[in-house]
Amino acid sequence: MTTPPDRAEGPGCWRSILVFVVGLVLVGAGLERWEDVYAWPVDASWYRVTEQAGSDGRTMIEFGCQNFAPVEFAEVPDRPRIFVVGGSTTFGFPERPVGTEPLRGSPYGVVGALEAALSPGVEVVNLGVNGGTSEDTLRLVRRAMAWGPSGIVVYDGSNEVMAVPQHFSAGLWRFALYRRFAGLAPRATESPGWVGPASYGDDAHFSAVVSQFRHNLDATVALARAAGVPIVLATQARNLVDFDPSWSTEGPTGSLATASDAEVEAALAAAPRSAEAAFEAGRRRRATGGDARAAFIAAVDEDGMPFRVSTAINGAILHAGALGDARVVVADAEAAVGALPGDDEFYDWIHPRPAAAEKIAAAILVGMRESGMISGAVGAPVHAFVPDAAVDLREAASWLQWACVRRQDPAHRLAEADRWALAAMPGPEADAMHGIIDVLAGRAEHVLIADPALAERLGHIHACVARALAPTP
After folding, report:
1. CA angle 69-72-76, nearest 5°?
2. 373 touches 122 (CB < 8 A)
3. Structure pTM?
4. Which CATH number fits domain 44-241+306-370: 3.90.1030.10, 3.40.50.2300, 3.30.420.40, 3.40.50.1110?
5. What mean pLDDT do residues 168-188 have?
């Protein structure tokens, strides 16, 4: 006869399960806390830091970023040290080549113009990272607070929405561990056609991304305030006129280029969230002297893959600076470049050309003075770098990539790629790009590139560029 199990063991079993579950929750909470507060960005090879205490108490830092040779921040007694953080606009793309240039003393982009105005009395350190997001910026600033900053300038926000995966949970996006692993998922790489789901999902997903950006920015500001360090937050300027949206999430399923002005306005009225209709309406209004800015901004905000910073992101920057703290100041870089910026102001969708870089730097200098970060006379924010053929080729490659994204009608982006390739001095790379453009425009089937190394490098621009290359014999 089998003896029935002792029922007294039941409560002990449940207690064990409860202890296990509670332990699991505590471990998960600990990992979440560590990830949120202490973790370094995902690709550790991009961010290598060596710190050493100097004789006067200031920290000497070697910061290796994106395969740069580490650069030493030498001790300079009684010299203010200002960090500028953000993405590729801070980094200095496309003027500044990845992997070869130092983080200080360079004439590139907005930071180069700032340094021209402040040097030699102020040490300006460029901590911009190509493709970086506000999460990277927050983690970098946490580390940088130990490096003795006299001030922090944040020019960030353009990569927030573009950097998210195609499919993620809006409800879970606030958790750092989830963002870490969700960030490994594929991102959208080309349009679904004229109309289709946005690369980030729906409005709930967009709101989750903006909410996290606001959280990161608020946390960055809180770090500076706690340390008594002035901070300037700059809104993001963008190319409104000469960068078309990638696709729409609603509205017409074809080109409006041949439609009449009345038909374009009717299409926008019928589908006010159509990025394509808004952009075309902006172009028509601009040509006739109408109110084009509102339509161009709508085209940015409703873009199915938003490369350019949205109104919501710039709004979050303005909100983060509205604290009533004199050491926290917003610099309106967007307003500084004008109401309808285009190719004259930008190399592409968001990277400023020399004149625009000077205007953005001038706006930031005003904010730096208002925050107490700098005082006394400063020089003019002169952008000294003269773009060369290498810049032209980098821009041609960028426009090729975005032409591949807008696969339903890449004519404008291909024309921009062709313009930049033509600006470069004749050579194998420029010639190869012209051939690729012909293929993508439907004028040729394939392009043969004799140099395998060049073919491989160009093939990494985008899968559609790789498909345009003929097999090497």
Report:
1. 160
2. no
3. 0.89
4. 3.40.50.1110
5. 88
